């Protein structure tokens, strides 16, 4: 079986109205549908599926689950078998449990993160329309073009990466090691982008950030200006660059405290599981790997998670 891509992040937010404002006005997503104050579905401009982000009203911030699309409806059953062989029970999720989404397979990773695999998503079309579209929306600013990747926190990232490779077809593209040689950050792809998912060490079940891709490196600068103008907290640096993946990036927080990222410039991965060795970052280059310009990673970058 193989995954098609990261489909959506389902986030927990205590203040639904504030979260919807943030993800529409700051991140630039479209509000597709809302179930009162309980749940909202949003999508980026350059995606046709019903949602790339689900907001769930909750007492706390964090990740409810991540949704990955599969290439074939039969992949759901194949995944259930592969997961069970590794001691992970899964359960089917009826079509329509989430609006605009077909049948799914939900399971909990040993890191206490829930994933949902699904095949069908209703189509809402591109924001510019599906007939004779202009290349940019009329009110186009520097906004998210799409959901790009998630970074999760796990007590045993190396074990989790091995499980994701064995069961779901991910492959490691880059890895940063600590002084003892243990993996500190592992970047995994299930597509041809450099990372759809990354793992950092820490408390199980936590979300480090969700990243939205913008259309150019200069858009990251424009987005940073917007964040500063709107007084949206940027926890770490302003616009900067990661050594890992080489992306131009800025991090900021949603009203619940979930870390967001605008990013552009990740290279295309080879798309060949087990055939391309990963890039390795050694302990003496970790700061440069994380923040290439500053070469000094702020402690909050690793410690602040939801
Ligand atoms: Fe990221």
Can you characterise this structure?
The protein is of the alpha/beta class. It contains six helices and 17 strands. It has helices spanning 16-26, 75-85, 157-168, 217-229, 286-290, 299-303; strands at 3-13, 30-35, 39-43, 53-57, 62-70, 90-93, 104-108, 114-118, 146-154, 171-177, 183-189, 197-201, 206-213, 240-241, 248-253, 259-264, 279-281. Strands 14-15-16-13-9-12-11-10-17 form a nine-stranded mixed sheet. It has an eight-stranded mixed sheet with strand order 2-3-4-1-5-8-7-6, covered by helices on one side. The longest helix is centred in the C-terminal third of the chain and has 13 residues, at 217-229. The chain is globular.
SSE layout and pairing:
Blueprint: E1 3-13, H1 16-26, E2 30-35, E3 39-43, E4 53-57, E5 62-70, H2 75-85, E6 90-93, E7 104-108, E8 114-118, E9 146-154, H3 157-168, E10 171-177, E11 183-189, E12 197-201, E13 206-213, H4 217-229, E14 240-241, E15 248-253, E16 259-264, E17 279-281, H5 286-290, H6 299-303
Parallel strand pairs: 1-4, 5-8, 9-12, 10-17, 13-16
Antiparallel strand pairs: 1-5, 2-3, 3-4, 6-7, 7-8, 9-13, 10-11, 11-12, 14-15, 15-16
This protein binds fe (ii) ion.
């Amino acid at each position: 079986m193989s995954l098609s891509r990261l489909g959506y992040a389902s986030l927990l937010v205590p203040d639904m109205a504030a979260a919807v404002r943030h993800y529409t006005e700051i991140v630039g997503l479209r509000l597709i549908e809302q179930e009162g104050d309980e749940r909202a579905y949003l999508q980026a401009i350059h995606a046709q599926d019903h949602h790339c982000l689900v907001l769930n009203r909750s007492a706390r911030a964090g990740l409810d689950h991540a949704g990955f699309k599969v290439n074939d409806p039969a992949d759901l059953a194949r995944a259930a078998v592969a997961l069970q062989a590794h001691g992970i029970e899964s359960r089917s999720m009826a079509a329509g449990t989430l609006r605009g989404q077909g049948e799914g397979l939900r399971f909990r990773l040993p890191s206490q993160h829930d994933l949902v695999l699904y095949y069908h998503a209703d189509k809402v079309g591109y924001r510019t329309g599906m007939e004779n579209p202009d290349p940019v929306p009329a009110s186009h600013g520097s906004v998210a073009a799409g959901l790009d990747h998630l970074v999760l926190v796990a007590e045993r990232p190396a074990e989790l990466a091995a499980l994701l490779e064995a069961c779901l077809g991910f492959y490691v593209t880059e890895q940063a090691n600590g002084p003892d040689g243990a993996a500190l950050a592992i970047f995994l792809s299930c597509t041809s982008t450099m990372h759809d998912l990354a793992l950092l060490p820490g408390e199980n079940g936590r979300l480090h950030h969700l990243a939205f891709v913008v259309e150019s490196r200069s858009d990251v600068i424009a987005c940073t200006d917007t964040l500063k103008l709107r007084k949206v907290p940027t926890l770490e640096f302003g616009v900067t660059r990661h050594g890992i993946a080489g992306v131009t990036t800025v991090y900021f927080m949603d009203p619940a405290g979930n870390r967001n990222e605008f990013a552009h410039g990740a290279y295309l991965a080879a798309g060949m599981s087990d055939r391309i060795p990963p890039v390795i970052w050694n302990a003496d280059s970790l700061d440069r790997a994380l923040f290439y310009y500053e070469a000094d990673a702020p402690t909050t970058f690793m410690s602040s998670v939801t």
